[in-house]
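Submission checklist for the structure archive. All mandatory fields must be present; incomplete records are returned to the submitter.

[x] Identifier: YwiC-like family protein
[x] Organism: Streptomyces rimosus subsp. rimosus
[x] Residue count: 256
[x] Sequence attached
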Amino acid sequence: MSTSRGRRALRRWIPNQHGAWAMLLVPFLAGALLGGFVGRHALLLPAWLLAYCTAFHGQQYVRLRRLSRNPRAPRRHLAPLAGFGAAFVLCAVPLAVAHPWLLLAALCAAPFFAVNIVYAYRNEERATVNGIIAVVPACGMLLVSDRLGSGTVDSGAWTAAVACLLYFTGTVLYVKTMIRERGSEAFRVASAVYHGLAVVAAVSLDPWLAVPFVVFLLRAVAMPGRGVRVAVVGAVEVLCSVLLLAFIVCGHLFPC
């Protein structure tokens, strides 16, 4: 019984946005691989994940405070909000003291977080625009992770960050065609057109990116309308994320 209660408590604390984890981890790992892993990455990664968990529960509290008739519903997010927030501060403060430029990075991310709060307040978290807005600071973490390791941000890091932005923006559109907008021909066409343009943009950035972005285009064209289970959609996106990371690193190690 205690194990069952523990699992329920864990589900209440851990955000249920499963697709977000790849978006959080891939840019971070790409930046660390390009800039070089250092000990401070072991503090930056938990700080980054804790920031996301804190933001998630803050948004849920704002949303439910406005919409729910049950006063206990928003309150369920207060303990995770406080717990994750406190843990984030413990990780973030030493990093900010050692690297004050991280405060500027956080300031740059703040407007995107503010927009996500507004969408949560309006109960429109799943809106396409809101999803794309959330992608921007996640991909910006690549630059932060890279600079933490290398001490600077070069053109290779910017190329990788834009590649991540192209991919994860496309993921927002593609997943819509597979789940919430699976019957929408307009979304299906928009996703296919976007992925076609993304191939052109990615190849102009780095020829190494041609392979993954052609794969992304093929899945955006071939998968919608096939009745694929949600779990399979998620598994494919994990594989696509790993593929992107691998080719970003290849482009860095073996520049054309």
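[x] Structure attached
Curator remark: The CA atoms of residues 206 and 251 lie 7 Å apart. The mean pLDDT is 94.
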